[in-house]
Amino acid sequence: MNTSNIKKYAPKARAVFENKQIELREFDDKLKRHADMQKTLDLDDGVKVNYGKFGGLLVDVKAITWKK
């Protein structure tokens, strides 16, 4: 990669990394709050109920719990 390509793409790459860093910090804060709550999981409740206890931490919770 030559210098002009680096100068062209470096700011875009930096912005992507900074946005990911912000996203990870926000997720880390959410994860810490949930960990501090020390939620208990009951396997007899099933996946729907246990997924619902973790709100925005898990991907696509609405599809699992059937909430709109």
Write up what this structure looks like:
This protein is mainly α and 68 residues long. The protein has 2 domains: 1-37; 39-68, no CATH class. The protein has helices at 3-37, 47-52, 61-65. The longest helix is centred in the N-terminal third of the chain and has 35 residues, at 3-37. The radius of gyration is 19 Å and the shape is elongated. The N and C termini lie far apart (48 Å). The model has no long low-confidence stretch (mean pLDDT 84).
Summarize the structure.
The protein is mostly helical. The protein is built from 3 helices and no strands.
Ends distance: 48 Å
Radius of gyration: 19 Å
The rough form would be described as elongated
Main β-sheet: number of strands, strand sense, barrel status? none
Q: Low-confidence runs (pLDDT<50, min 5 residues)? A: none
Number of strands: 0
Q: Helix coverage percent of residues?
A: 55-70%
Strand content: under 5%
What letter string, H or E per element, gives the SSE order? Answer: HHH
Q: What count of structural domains?
A: 2
